[in-house]
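Q: How would the structure tokens look for this protein?
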Amino acid sequence: MRNFEIVAHRGVPEGVPENTIAAFQRAMDLGADGIELDVRLSRDQVPVVFHNFYLDEGTNTSGPVFAHTSAELCEVRLLGGRGETPKERRIPTLREVLEAFAGRLGLEIEIKGPELESPEIVARELQPFRNLWDTMEVTSYEPALLLDIGQRCQGLATDLIQRPSEDWMKLDVVAYVAVHAARLAGARAVHLHPTQLSSEVVKTVRAAGLEVHSGFANDADALRMMDQLGIPKFDTDNLRLALEFRDSLGG
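A: Here is the predicted structure in token form.
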């Protein structure tokens, strides 16, 4: 079996909404090594698990997450899927996900930001689980947020997510920006999209003392790239395919 970790991006939303306890449970049941989840702050600064700024798409409520209290968000019902209980359709808090899955699955916790307070608030939620930090990582597109939480939670892995490349950017610039943005963040690794990867990019990033992880490894070509480049950990929206691919490489 090749030695790489497969992370279910927002869980496995098969018949249930993404970023929910039910979607994360499906990922664990299928055999994911970890789950990726997105954290935003409610109006009363409770970290909740939801990807978009706006609730309008995919819920029975409108407006941005930050305009609603955590109590109000608890009453929001996520749409999509079939036959779920009200609990499965609810936006979870970060604390609920930690209590349900910390130590049972790897956790990749993305701080969406942009609130200056978010690292302190997330760090406070993570402190009771300090003995499980070796199974967790915090990610963000924002170097300042990663630098802050890394200082508050020393020993917890922090990884920078590289922003999508602009049309004019060649891979040499992608690698250069990745290295220096990750240095600004005090990050352990940088997450690159498959379109931002090559053997030379990986070599350049690793030469700077950083590891390379990836996201959106959703098809056979991307999965083969992960294997060929020796990417040790990647996110996928197609967990079943990724697991089948890894199994096909094993002996």
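The chain has one domain: 5-249.

The chain has a mean pLDDT of 95.

Upvote if useful.
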